[in-house]
Each structure stands twice: as C-alpha cells, then as structure tokens.
Amino acid sequence: MSLEDLLEQRYQVSSSDIDKALNYQKRFNGRLEQILVNMGSLSDDRLLSLYSDYLNLEILNLLDWENKEKVDIDDTAISYLLSKQWVPLKASSEDWMLAAKYPLDLEVNQFLTRKNIKFKVLLCSDSDIEVLGAKYQLKANVLEEADTALSGDEEERLKELATEAPTVNLLNSLISRALRQGASDMHLEPYEGRYRARFRVDGVLHEEETIAPRMQLPIVTRLKILSGMDIAEKRRPQDGKIEMRIANQDLDIRVSALPLNEGESIVMRFLRKDNVKYDMSVLGLSQDIETLIRRDIKVTSGVVLMTGPTGSGKTTTLYTFLNALNNNDVKIITLEDPVEYQLEGINQVQVNSDIGFNFASGLRSVVRQDPDIIMLGEIRDKETAQIALQSALTGHLVFSTVHTNDAASAYTRLLDLGVEEFLLNAALVSIVAQRLVRKVCPDCAEVHPEATQIIEKYNLSEIARKNDILNFSLMQGRGCESCSHTGYKGRAAIIEYLECDHEIKSMPKNADFISKAKQHNFELNRRTLFEDGLFKVIQGITTIEEVMRVAG
After folding, report:
1. Under 8 Å CB-to-CB from 326, ≥6 apart: which residues?
2. Could you name the CATH architecture of 152-272?
3. According to the model, what pLDDT value does residue 280 have?
4. Is residue 451 within 8 Å of 474, Cβ to Cβ?
5. For 523-532, how does the pLDDT look when each residue is reduced to its tens digit (9 = 90+)?
6. DSSP 3-state of 417
7. Which segments constitute the Bacterial type II secretion system protein E domain (predicted)?
8. pLDDT surpasses 70 at 357
9. What integer pLDDT is reported at residue 153 of this predicted model?
10. Which of 32, 376, 445, 455 is most buried per CB count within 10 Å?
11. Rounded-to-integer distance, Cα 401 and Cα 304, Å
C-alpha cells in the first residue's frame, strides 16, 4: 500500500489535503507526512504509528530499555547519531539496534552503510529519545556547554532552545494527546528529580509522560514565548494565553507559570469553543431538579446562587441557564474573571483588578446599563454581595456563585461577609450546590460485581422506592480504548437544591440553621449531594466509588 493510500484509508486524511500536501512537496520538497502535520491534517503523535504500518517496524517500549547501560561505541558515532535524534540501544561489531523517530533519514542510513553496519531500527517518540540519550556522558557534556552559554547571552540561548525541532515536536505531541483524550488541562511539573506531564481528564489527573530533565527549560521557555510571558522571569508567577490550531482544532490555552523549588510548574487549561454545548440535557440533571431550576430561572427578579469548589462546573451551569433565557427580548450582561467562552447575543465583561475594575465597581456600571439579567462570576466580599442582592430587589434576575460545601451554607457564608439577614431573605430565590461525577463509559459498561453488597450497605432499594424505580442495576466500566482504560467517560452533575421558600426565610440564621434547613429539605423529599449521587448510581450513570470520591 502506498503512503498516500495508507494516510487516506487508515488515518482518515482527506484526499484534498493529501493533494495540497503533494503540490507543496513538489514546489518546496519536504516529507509528505510532516507537511500534513504542519497543515493540521495529521496529528504529530500519530507519526510513529504511521511509520510502523508503512515500514512494518516495531515501536519501542521505553520500560525495556530505559535502565540499560549505554552502548560502548566510539564517541564520534554517538555524537553524530544523537545529533540526528537516533539513539544506540545495543551494538556488536557489525550489528546495531537503534531507536529513531524518523527511520528513513537518508544521511543516517548512508552513514551506517559506509561503516558496513547491519542495523535494526525501533520507532521512538521525541521524549523517549531524550530519556534514552540522557544516559550518555557525551550528552551530559553538551548540556554543560549549553548551560555555560546561557550565562553569556541567556535570553537568546533560551529562545534558540525553545525553537528547536525536538522542543516544538514534543510540546505539539503532548497537546495533541491531551486533546484526543478530552483533557481539560495539562500540568507540567518537576517531581522527584524528573519533569512529568499530567492530563486532567473528567476532573482526575493522570500521569501521561516523563520528560527528560534537559527538556524542562526548553519546554517552559517555549510556552512562555507563545503565551507572551517574560522568559527571563523565574521568581514570580505569571499568566498568559495562547491561540493556536492543532489537529484541526482552533484552541485557546490559558497558561499559568508558578515557581517551585525544583523549577517551574506550568498549567495549561484548554478552551475548545467548538465543543462546548450549553444545554440542560448535557448537564445530566435529574428530572425533578431540572423542573425546579427551570421554574426558578424564569422569575423576573431575585438571586439564584451556585455553590461548590473550584472545578465543580458552576460557571458552565450558569452559562447553561443564561443560554436557556437568551433571546432578543432580554438584555443579559455577565461580569467574569476571566471571560472563558464567548456566548452569542450576551454582553460579557472581564474585570481587571489591576486598574481597580473589580466585581463591585463593575457591577455598579453594569446596573446602569439597564440589563434584565446579570451574571456575576463570584461573590467574594460584602460590597459585591450587597450590590448583587440590592440589584435583585430593583427588578433584575441575578446569577452568581459562592464557595461553600452545600446549599444551606451559602446563607452563613454571606452572613459572615457582613450581609444583612433581611437582605438575604428578600432577594434569594434558590441555592444550588453542585459537584461533578464521572459517568460510566457506555462502551465497556457491565454489571458491578459487588452490586448486592453495595445495595444493602447504602440502602439503595429504599432510595429507588422513593423515586418510583422498580428495577435497577449497578454498573461499572471495565476499561477500554474509548475511555483510556479508566472505565469512565464524560461527567454529570449531582445537585443539592434548596428553595428559599417561606419556611427557610422565617428560620433564624443562627448556629442551628444549616441542620434545620437540611431537615426541611428532607421533609420535601429533596436529596442531599450524596443522595443525588446515590440516585445516579441506581440509574447506572455513575458508580458508588465515584460518588464517595466526590461527595462521600
């Protein structure tokens, strides 16, 4: 099979993209597959698989070679091979085994042929080549020379390191893999003498890659250059933003750099605008809770609060509420820090504390714009809280968030900020506490082997009876390619809903308020966060282990 046919049939590259790449190749030379990578038609981290299929070569398993001794061949040969990103793995007098990312390199093949060496090539990624090459003393000497050069003209040397092909390819490969796995963010951090890459998928971090120590500085520098940070500043935190196109996706990446004892920790948050859907059905709300929330967001004035820790999906849920209300008859203004996703038809404002434009001052300006609906990113202080609540009393519907563990605690949190009790009772419509649980992967779901014991331990039969469910099965994910062998794919919200009705408003907001509010919710047959999680276990949406992790 030709390379063009392989690309089209097995790697889903369109024939039109292949034709464009071939035309470019005729005019400017270059490798067809690399041109397609530069076009964004082929992911860089699929090149190894492509070469393996095309050339019938094995892909190296790093664990088999990482701790083996360096090969005893002459320094000139090692120097040349390492400069070409080839690493000797094993060698006798005339029979060598080497690791390479691009096995068709004509110069290297001619070099080995001139030496009358028979050789076998194992395919290897950029990062694995760095790990394997680090064991050679010659490589260490090259590094020492590089460090010496940095002291002379540090900034220029940093820029040079950041633009070298291994650095560019490694970073692009990591980002492509993160996107393909559906990661929300990627963490690059020094850890126990090494540099590791971790992906957060469905809210849980997984270690994905170990990066050679010598690549730490080039990778960090490249990210700083791309995101507009100061590459010479290593003592204070910095923030930046990257706009790029990788694997046919337009991507905004929020980048944060934090100095640590062993180096700098970099966190990249991926914002994929084309993949975001703000629809109630996507949130995975239980039907009874969705009905109550839909009723609340249709009132003309009042405050609807979301509570939960960072990363619990509060902003996404509020965006969904706004999207449900968004039409030509209403004016909606949001005040956020930062504005992450642009919502069509909605006026979005980003606060900037550096110039004194914080939530409180911004909210005053927003109210003068005569909006019908206001979304306030977060209530952090007394002034912001009072303006938000007073705005609700003057005919605005206000959505906002506070950081508390459950719904009833939002009252005590606002009282601690100094807000008057009468203002809370007058303005609050409802409070929604939220967490996100991972959903069982639909492609490998199977009945939980300990279903009987779990049903008895957590009294799930009673919860099923209360919710008119006659038959149910507890599910778990076995683990498959689709879910990266985690057993989970996607997330759903578990909710604790507290309506600020007459009984809640009439309760004294003292030390007993939270327990009384929970008892009131229980009498109305409304679930706590944990109980809503158990309800989703009964429905086969998630597992008991996941509910215990998030809300246990």
Report:
1. 332, 343, 344, 345, 346
2. 2-Layer Sandwich (3.30)
3. 79
4. yes
5. 998 999 999 9
6. helix
7. 367-381
8. yes
9. 57
10. 376
11. 9
| Distance (Å, whole) CA 258 – CA 223 | 13
| Span 385-444, pLDDT tens digits | 998 999 899 889 999 999 988 999 999 999 999 999 999 999 999 999 999 999 999 999
Cβ atoms within 10 Å of 134's Cβ, excluding its own: 17
Convert 278-319 into a string of H (helix), E (strand) and C (coil). CCHHHHCCCHHHHHHHHHHCCCCCEEEEEECCCCCCHHHHHH
Sheet containing 397-402, strands listed edge to edge, beginning at the edge strand earlier in sequence: 347-350, 332-336, 373-376, 397-402, 302-307, 428-440, 488-499
Using CB atoms within 10 Å of the CB of residue 490, give its burial: 0 to 12 exposed, 13 to 18 middle, 19+ buried: middle
Q: State the amino acid at position 425 in one-letter form.
A: N
User: What does the alpha-carbon distance between residue 486 and residue 480 come to, in Å, rounded to a whole number?
Assistant: 7
Instruction: Give the distance from CA 82 to its chain's centroid.
Output: 34
What is the rounded CA–CA span in Å between residue 461 and residue 470? 9
In this structure, what DSSP letter does residue 45 have?
Answer: G
Residue 156 in tokens: 């220029």
Would you say the CATH fold of 280-436+494-528 matches that of 152-272? no
Tokens of 123: 């395919």
- CATH number of 280-436+494-528: 3.40.50.300, 3.20.20.70, 3.40.50.2000, 3.40.50.720? 3.40.50.300
DSSP 540: T
DSSP state of 59: B
Residue 284 is encoded by which pair of tokens?
A: 């995975």
378 neighbors 400 (Cβ within 8 angstroms) = yes
* Greatest alpha-carbon span in the chain: 92
Q: Which amino acid is located at 97 in the chain?
A: M
Q: What is the full DSSP assignment across 180-229?
A: HTTEEEEEEEEETTEEEEEEEETTEEEEEEEE-GGGHHHHHHHHHHHTT-
Locate the domains of the chain by residue range.
Answer: 3-135, 152-272, 280-436+494-528
